[in-house]
């Protein structure tokens, strides 16, 4: 029998090797996740973001240009930033009122969701990430945001004004069927369970969430967060147990048990809590506090018109804020994502016509001037095997 003194070094060596792959002994001991048909396997049940760790690129993004794509809501354009120089190098004309730039499930296309703000001329503009150029737009109804089914076969166009999800072919965008969520006023952002069986969407103008069965395509129920709340972005914890929900009126993040669909806690962050992005190692959650609610022309928490925006950092293990990064001179950080190496958090400055680049080690920020009212910017390429949509929910 091997002695304890010999087993310990070998165990340590094995654990070290697993750590180098972004894994852990606990993850190896955890039971496998039974995913829905067609969904790629969950490699690490303790951290579903393992495959989106720094530098872990899919062969599918080979040849993609390193760029930041910024949809400018009031300019009907996308500003293209070179992250190496922090300069705008191109401006792409797109459809009316572009809201988000969404990486496709297969990582081959970036889709600009031009929702025309309730008008009839909504569209999706494809961008080729290998050339950085836009293609011909496809007309669709009210595409405020877009996600993809876990098997990658269909796009889920979020028709916010109609409280509806439109399931379309992931490539042609031909409509297959629709799902109404009538009690979800302002349906807009979502994340998926670790096994892909359900998704939870936020209802911005109803202060609640809606849970969707992704297999049977039906509404499972609604959860009231706060009657006066305005839930925005939503992101699931690395182990898939807790959904974090940014609430712009509550100035913080609600925690929801996804399986039981119940509130289990709240973390105060900053004024106008809006966007949520996990760090590349899955240990932290970056929270964009927009500095105001800016609803129907009104701003809250400002002095002399200055947005008191900031970024808070939540530790997933402790569920506590461990850092806060104010923007010198004020700002309005909204939506974006983390760079491929995990060193920079890119966020749009919604009401300052800027893009912010935060150093994730220090919180120091650089600013880049873009078009009018930038919104859901995409960082590309990103690590990961596939995208579930929004500005890059990578798994």
From TrEMBL:
InterPro entries per UniProt: Host-pathogen_enzymatic-act (IPR051200), N2O_reductase_N (IPR011045), WD40/YVTN_repeat-like_dom_sf (IPR015943), YNCE-like_beta-prop (IPR048433), YVTN_b-propeller_repeat (IPR011964)
Pfam families: YNCE (PF21783)
Entry-linked SUPFAM superfamilies: Nitrous oxide reductase, N-terminal domain (SSF50974)
Alphabetically ordered keywords of this record: Signal
Highest taxon above the source species: Bacteria
Signal peptide, first to last residue: 1-29
Limits of the YNCE-like beta-propeller domain: 34-377
PANTHER family: DIHYDRO-HEME D1 DEHYDROGENASE, PROTEIN NIRF
Protein name per its UniProtKB record: 40-residue YVTN family beta-propeller repeat-containing protein
Species per Swiss-Prot/TrEMBL record: Dyella marensis
């Amino acid at each position: 029998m091997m002695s304890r003194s010999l087993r310990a070094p070998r165990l340590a060596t094995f654990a070290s090797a697993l750590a180098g792959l972004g894994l852990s002994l606990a993850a190896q001991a955890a039971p496998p996740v039974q995913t829905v048909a067609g969904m790629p396997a969950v490699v690490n049940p303790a951290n579903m973001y393992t495959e989106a760790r720094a530098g872990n690129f899919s062969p599918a993004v080979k040849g993609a240009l390193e760029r930041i794509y910024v949809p400018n809501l009031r300019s009907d354009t996308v500003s293209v930033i070179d992250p190496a120089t922090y300069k705008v190098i191109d401006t792409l004309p797109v459809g009316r009122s572009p809201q988000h730039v969404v990486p496709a499930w297969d990582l081959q296309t970036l889709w600009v969701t031009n929702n025309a703000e309730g008008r009839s001329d909504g569209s999706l503009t494809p961008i080729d990430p290998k050339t950085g150029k836009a293609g011909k737009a496809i007309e669709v109804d009210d595409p405020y945001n877009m996600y993809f089914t876990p098997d990658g076969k269909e796009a889920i166009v979020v028709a916010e004004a109609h409280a509806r999800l439109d399931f379309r072919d992931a490539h042609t965008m031909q409509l297959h069927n629709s799902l109404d969520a009538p009690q979800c006023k302002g349906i807009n952002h979502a994340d998926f369970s670790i096994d892909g069986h359900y998704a939870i969407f936020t209802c911005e103008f109803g202060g609640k969430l809606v849970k969707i069965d992704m297999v049977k395509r039906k509404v499972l129920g609604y959860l009231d967060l706060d009657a006066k709340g305005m839930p925005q972005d939503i992101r699931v914890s690395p182990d898939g147990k807790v959904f974090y929900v940014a609430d712009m009126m509550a100035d913080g993040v609600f925690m929801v048990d996804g399986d039981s669909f119940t509130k289990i806690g709240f973390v105060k962050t900053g004024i106008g809590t809006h966007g949520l992005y996990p760090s590349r190692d899955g240990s932290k959650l970056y929270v964009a506090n927009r500095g105001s609610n800016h609803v129907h022309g009104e701003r809250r928490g400002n002095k002399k018109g200055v947005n008191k925006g900031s970024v808070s950092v939540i530790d997933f293990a402790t569920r506590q804020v461990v850092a806060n990064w104010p923007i010198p001179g004020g700002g309005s950080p909204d939506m974006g994502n983390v760079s491929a190496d995990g060193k920079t958090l890119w966020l749009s400055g919604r009401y300052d016509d800027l893009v912010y680049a935060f150093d994730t080690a220090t919180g120091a920020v650089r600013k880049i001037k873009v078009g009018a009212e930038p919104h859901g910017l995409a960082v590309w390429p990103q690590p990961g095997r596939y995208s579930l949509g929004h500005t890059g929910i990578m798994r």
